[in-house]
Amino acid sequence: MPNRKLLVVGDRLLIKQNTAEERTEVGLVLPESVISKEKVQGGLIMATGPGIPLPDPDQSDEEPWRESRREPRHLPMQAKEGDYALFLKKAAIEIRFEGHAYLVVPQAAVLVLIRDEEAEGI
To answer: What integer pLDDT is reported at residue 81 of this predicted model?
Structure first.
């Protein structure tokens, strides 16, 4: 099998989700219907897209045949690889890639990011 890489596009995040807790802190077993009703979920960000694409400010509709030599520009993502994200579960789409389950989540669905300050160099 060829060496394949999963690329995330736009303002989306690839998240490895936490497993849902089936027991409460005092040991009560939670049924699947309760677990599935959770509105917020957490997970580790494995990869991010480049961000929201921005138009080329030099591009003119008057000369569409003219080639633009500028590189694509993107509004950068606030989330980074390695962050822990709390996000709205209803916005997530589950995918499987090479035997692993991931969630693809738009950055707009992220409520909170938790970042390791030591890794950030602060």
So the answer is: 94
Cα 74 from Cα 53, distance rounded (Å): 4
Share of the chain above pLDDT 90, in %: 40
Tokens encoding 17: 């989700």
For residue 62, what are its two tokens? 């008057």
Q: Tell me the backbone φ, ψ of residue 120, rounded to 5 degrees.
A: -80, -15
Question: Rounded to an integer, what is the distance from CA 85 to the centroid of its chain?
Answer: 8
The overall average pLDDT reported for the chain is: 80
Buried b (16+ CB within 10 A) or exposed e, 45-81: bbbbbbbeeeeeeeeeeeeeeeeeeeeeeeeebebee
